[in-house]
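Reply to dn_fold:

You asked what the input looked like. This is it:
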Amino acid sequence: MAFSNHRGYVSLGEKLRPRQGQRTIITRILFVVIALSALILLLPVVTQTPVRHGIGSLKAWTPGSSVERRPQDSWQKPEGLRVVGLVFFGRKRFVSILDCYLKRNLAVNGGILDEVQFIRRTQDKEDLAYLDELLASSSSYGLANVTDVERIEDYASTWDNLQLDKETIYIKIDDDVIFIEDNTLESMVKVRVEHPEYLAVSANSINNPALSWVHWHLGAIRPYLPEMKPPDESRADDLDWNRRKSWRASELPTWQGPDDHFIDFKSDFPAPFNGHRWLPLRKTTNDDNTPVNVDTYDKAGPGWNFWTIAAQELYSFLENLENDELYRYKFDVWDYKYDRLSINLIAIMGKDVIANRPFPSDDEQYLTVELPKILGRHSVVAGQGTSVHYSFRAQVWGHNLHALAWTDVLDRYRAYAEEKVCGIPR
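and this is what came back:
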């Protein structure tokens, strides 16, 4: 006697035997169901892990990814390699923010900087007094060893007079860098170590000509506009004004104006009043008719000249920071080829500086355009870690100083550093 099944015919004895085998199959099915259920439960945790300050991944970024960097994933610099920060010091109001990030990135605090050297580029007595306080605040801080301090008149003489070690990686830092993500310096050094063919490696810097255009096209720049008159202190939804300069964009009121508003951003204009804010357009995600809409991929275009684009970038970054969305800015490596790249935060080997002295007066043009062409070695951006650069001269000095300095954005970055960075371990 035989029974039919999907495999054909089997004998009655064969059909009756596999009861234990059936249990095995059922057990396996249950195991698979349980495993799949566990995977479904874990999936939101894996895919929605936020990229918070101090968190990032040195793996290649893909759209929608936001992988938390756990200790075992952190890149370790090669044994014996020294990494030294070079701060071009001049202004207390900026360095008092930067100081928190420098200390957080010191090797003694779990970071990558073996030491930080300050290069004096000011004669202001108050700023120099603050520099003395800084040097006394950490054994990892020191003055850069310069052969002729009196000759430090421009960037060329600064580079030419620095005493450098050939095998050390130096990270040149402008004094108005006001945010550094925890993995930023590591990612720069990692790219330079793994790709010695590169001459200089920049951070993924916010408010950086050409990069601002890249960030815009990646969807990182949010729609913001300036408030055109001082705020109404009685306005109930203005938590920001009532709390006096929170860094959180969520506490800003919504920009008020007609839906069909039009502001001509093709020509820059003066700031409306001192201490004004930029407010989000929460009714739309469309950035049409906001300053960034006229930006170009250009070393000296609107992203360099217009304070309005800088303001929109700086306020947008705080919104993305609060919302755990720094992944919007990220990519692997952006090769500038022989285009000019702003060097407000770059990594370079000591031997590459020493071998190519003397420097001309325009060190940026030399390091990112002229010297790369001579050597056939490109300058690139390490896209995995962000930093924020406050301003270029044109963004502050335009309109008789009625420009970026007339916003309150610097106070907001100070508020963030004081709450989240200063004195807080990694």
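The CA atoms of residues 31 and 37 lie 10 Å apart.
Hope that clears it up.
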